Amino acid sequence: METKMTRRNLGPNRLGDELAADILRYQAHEDAGAYFALVYVAEQRVVNSHGFEKDFPREASFPIRVVIVH
């Protein structure tokens, strides 16, 4: 499980890049069976939270879930 929080220098683009890198790292780890990220969005830095979550597909061989909370 990964936790993140948006801030001035961590907006949606950089956040997406960080999550993508995390997913690749966890997929390569032999003991990881899934990836779950809980992201706290401060100050409405992610306008379309639902769309952002859907940018990360839930793969059957390696389940991926990103959840945005405000």
Please outline what is shown here:
By secondary structure, the protein is α/β, with parallel strands linked by helices.
Outline the structure in words.
It is built from two helices and three strands; from the N terminus they run βαβαβ. It is 33% helix and 23% strand. The protein starts with a strand and ends with a strand. It has one domain (2-69). The chain has a three-stranded parallel sheet. Strand 1 (2-5), helix 1 and strand 2 (35-40) form a beta-alpha-beta unit. By secondary structure, the chain is α/β, with parallel strands linked by helices.
Question: Which descriptors apply to this entry?
Answer:
70 residues; alpha/beta; three-stranded parallel beta sheet; elongated
Topology:
Blueprint: E1 2-5, H1 12-28, E2 35-40, H2 49-54, E3 64-69
Beta-strand portion reads: 15-25%
Give the overall silhouette.
Answer: elongated
Number of helical regions: 2
Number of strands: 3
**Largest sheet geometry:** 3 strands, parallel
How many structurally independent domains? 1
- The mean pLDDT is 92
Measure the end-to-end span.
18 Å
Low-confidence stretches: none
The helical percent reads 25-40%
What structural category do the secondary elements indicate?
Answer: alpha/beta
Q: Largest sheet, order of strands side by side?
A: 1-2-3
Q: What are the secondary-structure elements, in order, as H or E? A: EHEHE
- Rg over alpha carbons: 12 Å
